[in-house]
Amino acid sequence: MTGFELTDQDRRILALLQRDGRISNQDLAERTAMSTSACWRRVKALEEAGIIARYVALVDARRAGMAFHAIVLVKLSRHSRDHVVNFIAEVQRREEVLDCFATTGESDYHLRVLCPDLDAYNDFLDNFLFGLPGVANVHTNMVLKQIKHETAVSFG
């Protein structure tokens, strides 16, 4: 993204698209005081620069039957290149893992994991996570209640 300078109009476009990814180009142009062609070109430039990474539908996990939500802290026994590369590749393949962060502190990685229920989570642990080479310790923090969840990046 180097060299791409966000303008105030870009920020307005991004804010509107984050609220409603299905907004028409015409409505987006009207709300940003741009012509439809200029707005379309700006959105395309934001996509090509990787600032707009993708368009998605936000799903209510509980209503979709995914009731078990946890933050999982993982510590590796060694930080050999092979263990780290393997861990990252395997975690990226798992649909249960919504987010994976390499972190500082006592744990090396924080995972946000979503499963239908506790049995499915135990299966994820037993048949996947515990079997990964280099995994020394796994600590599960079960999410009791979601207080705040945002996907939009704020521009002030």
UniProtKB/TrEMBL annotation:
Keywords: DNA-binding, Transcription, Transcription regulation. SMART domains: HTH_ASNC. Residues 6-67 form the HTH asnC-type domain. It comes from the Bacteria. This is Lrp/AsnC family transcriptional regulator. Gene3D superfamilies: 3.30.70.920, Winged helix-like DNA-binding domain superfamily/Winged helix DNA-binding domain. It holds the Pfam family HTH_24. SUPFAM superfamilies: Dimeric alpha+beta barrel, Winged helix' DNA-binding domain. PROSITE patterns: HTH_ASNC_1, HTH_ASNC_2. It comes from Acidimangrovimonas pyrenivorans.
